[in-house]
Amino acid sequence: MSSSEFPIMPRVHYLNADYGIKSWLLTTDHKRIAWLYLISITFFFSIGGVAAALMRLNLLEPQGMLVEPETYNKLFSIHGIIMVFFFLVPSIPAVLGNFLIPIMLGARDVAFPRLNLLSWYVFMTGGSFVLYALIAGGVDTGWTFYTPLSTLYLNTHVMAAAGGVFIAGFSSILTGLNFVVTIHKMRAPGLTWFRLPLFIWAMYATSIIFIIGTPVVAISLALIVIERIFHVGIFDPALGGDPILFQHLFWFYSHPAVYVMILPSMGVVSEIVTAFSRKKIFGYHFIAFSSIAIAVIGFLVWGHHMFVSGQSIYAGLVFSALSMAVAIPSAVKVFNWTATLYKGSISYEAPMLYALGFIGLFTIGGLTGLYLATTAIDQHVHDTYFVIAHFHYIMVGGAVMGYMGGIHYWWPKISGRLYPDGWARVSAIIIFVGFNLTFFPQFILGYLGMPRRYAVYPPEFQTLNVISTAGASILGIGYIIPLIYFAWSVRYGPVAGPNPWKATGLEWTTSSPPPTHNFEETPVVTEEPYGYDRLAEEIQVA
Amino acid sequence: MPHAFPLFPQEASTLAPAVDHLFYFLTAVSIFFSALIFLLVFYFAIKYRRRSKDEPPPKNQVINNIPLEVMWTVIPMILVAIMYFWGADIFVRSAQPPNNAMEIFVIGKQWMWHVEHSNGKREINALHIPVNVPIKLTMTSQDVIHDFSVPAFRMKKDVLPDRYTTEWFEATQTGKYHLFCDQYCGMGHSLMRGWVYVMSPGDYQRWLESGVSGATMAAQGETLYHQFGCITCHGTGKGPSFNGLFGKTVKLSDGQAVVANDAYIRESILYPTSQIVHGYPPIMPTFKGQVSEEEVLQLTAYIKSLGSKERNTGTP
Amino acid sequence: MIASRRKYKLHNSQAVVAEQFDDRTQQHEASSLGMWIFLATEIMFFGAVLTAYTVYRNLFTSAFEAGSHLLNAKIGALNTAVLICSSLTMALAVHAAQTGRRKRLMAFLVSTMLLGGVFLFIKFFIEWTHDYKEGLAPGLHFTYAGPQAGHVAMFYCFYFILTGIHAIHMIVGEGVMAVLLFMAWRGRFSEQWYNPIEMMGLYWHFVDIIWIFLFPFLYLLGAHF
Description:
The complex is a heterotrimer.
Chain A lengths: L20 H5 L4 H29 L10 H20 L2 H15 L7 H23 L13 H5 L4 H28 L12 H33 L12 H35 L6 H14 L15 H29 L8 H24 L1 H7 L3 H31 L5 H28 L13 H31 L39 H10 L1
Chain B lengths: L14 H33 L18 H29 L7 E8 L2 E6 L4 E3 L1 E5 L3 E8 L4 E5 L4 E5 L5 E6 L4 E7 L11 E7 L1 H9 L7 H11 L3 H4 L14 E3 L5 E3 L2 H9 L22 H13 L11
Parallel strand pairs in B: 1-5, 4-10
Antiparallel strand pairs in B: 1-2, 2-3, 5-8, 6-7, 6-9, 9-10, 11-12
Helix pairs in contact in B: 1-2, 4-7
Chain C lengths: L1 H6 L16 H36 L1 H10 L2 H26 L3 H32 L2 E2 L3 E2 L6 H37 L9 H26 L5
Antiparallel strand pairs in C: 1-2
Helix pairs in contact in C: 2-3, 2-6, 2-7, 3-6, 4-5, 4-7, 5-6, 6-7
């Protein structure tokens, strides 16, 4: 349509509807809350990233090039705590989920907008505790807080860090609650469950995990804090406590948490792959149900973190079997995305590069998970760099690439502006190359036996460590460039118009940026999502 | 130059080739599927690239194919089932030490490994073992959770406070292999390392007998048996006798039956009220805080030496 | 009085529908579902602690029974009765709101708050104070010298954690009820809109049900009468 030739910004939209710091800090508009989260998690990501940079620099030399082991222990702890709880877990849900869910549903806002704002404040409160722990001298428990180390043997700021994560957990719970109610109760007329975009299915499954899992880790950390304050022996073997109980309670949440971190990205990939191949998704129902299956089965596999913990071999065998099972729905999704590309009309803008990168890297990450689910192999590679490589392939090669793809895809909607796609493609490629160079050598290091959380290591591991650090520097550059061009685009980017990608989906029917109430009139939905086949027919008929 | 850039640690135990072969299978499957996906994605992305900016969406879109969905669900299920059962088989065998395994005892503490052989010989951050003999390590920690890991043997196990864990392996090649602590344990975690020395039987015997300052573990245990006054009850009938006790099934006062193994003996010394033997009064005092983990192991060795239901467990 | 009531009487039936909702039904259904989901998270929260408690109970049965025996089951039973009554008054408050009877609603809210207050008073100033004085407060003042004292201490750890977290939930509930009481006094509720009272009812009943689990788990299992 001709309006896309010369797109214009709407005169009033959610970004300029109100001015002043109060209108941002006291907003109940889900879109503004998404911005609050965007800025916060970018901030936390940079801190976690700096920690990673220092770690990789230190590992250039077997004797540790940069820091003492005590400092190194604090670096990997803060890296894990911040990246998991203050970047990955909130990333897509709190930024893209908050922004898009009401719009994709045809609603004016989430079910509980004030609760949404409270979520952000709770998140920032938790983050402040962790920042305090960092500034006051650091914490060195690892992000896993294993007992009795964290309760009895460390003098660092364990309570502040554990307390910060505990508080931030409530942010997840409230967000999950909000999303589930919104998705159930606030769909536009005609928007039945199987007409929902797959992003919504992914966010729904994620929210289930938020609701069921987060309270358990909250209790686990609360018990640590109670043990430290009152010197009671909940996990102290000398007083009858069982340190392995902590591991069970901790991993009961923390394993589903990794599905919290990947499911939203998978939802993003479903959206991008269809838009940039201009095709209906292949196997919609299979992808939707796979999301739910991953969430459900994901609650049953936590013991695969504990194969060598002294847990019984029978428990190990059961958890191994279930861990194999949870891989299957993920595989089904990868095949369905690939099949969506078949006979599509594919373009290579940055979002698509990220989505295609995701498919490849998530495949590798997921397959390497099978090694860890296989008891006999895990016995060798548990707590080595093999595990680190595996989860970074999923978290960074998967989740972060999905997040970056989503930010690029919906940036025109969020900001009303286009970013420079040339630079974006270059960054995506730099990230892809840097990432593989950083983490692939770590599979080898792990099988060779290099343990994780080691500040110093035997000299024969040096070559692979140097390669990994080289890759990390490239990866870092790849992340810095988008910061620059996104900031640039807010002021100087070309106006995007309502639908620069010519995609289907309710979010593309409203202006960019949308008005505060998202739609001028409540949309009515009459067809299935990804209606590119109907578009094709219409153009054919016309 | 295979050793300049190794991809695998040496295979130095009976377990190692089994694990490596399974690893090869998983790697073959992984390479196959990764390559398949990469190539398909690449191929489709190029073959079906959009040729003009205004190209309409494709017609006749295929969006469903149930047989395909079934196939790519069932085939992965079969493959992971193979991985599961193959791995489970190795895993179960690796968890059951042979009856004639030589016992060596490990105490981990921040940040070093104490190793004690049955003849009383001690070492720190090192483990000397003979080749081609199954070795069973009984391990405990004095503080936090550690992990005794020997990559060349493809084996590791967490070492827990106030509890025993065991791992076993049979070395197949002489040489020197890394020993790592593989569960983060605080400041000195990356320094809690050492070497496993696998020696020919003759060399091992010579090493074992050299520089042994004291008696065997069992003899030291006998000294402690008198020193701590255990004999006053257990040698007079007031408490259960230790003759032939080890490995026997013991009936407890609450009706349960347990096997008198290392863990049982340790628990009886440190937490005597938790498991009272049927027919005896609960009057045994605890020795927690008085007897060290090493002394518990020595007392256990002594009790084992008084005849057991198991076959003799290696070097006395 | 009548004038002030009229001032706040609701004329426009749309006045109390928040702007993200299309109509009152949607708002009502959304807040109900939201509260039920919140209660599900609370089940997981308490469930995790109760699981830990159960694990240790199985390991140290006789010590836990001894600890349980030292609690005063009669006072616990009294507290249970108090809390059940408060659920009754809460249900009556919801009914009063549903039928638009403002004074009754306020009366029953106050009764619920008072009964809740009685529960908390007994919990903190009779039970906990007594336990502290008797040397049964691990970490603060624990002097129990019987067999397996360490495991009895573990029991009391969980006793204080469980009843403490429960008490926190009650205190939060009291606070919210105070707000609702104020709103009721200002005439904000009517037969057309009493959502918050209903949600409060759900929450309060849930807090009651948690206690109905805690009471036998802590006071009754293994106790002798």
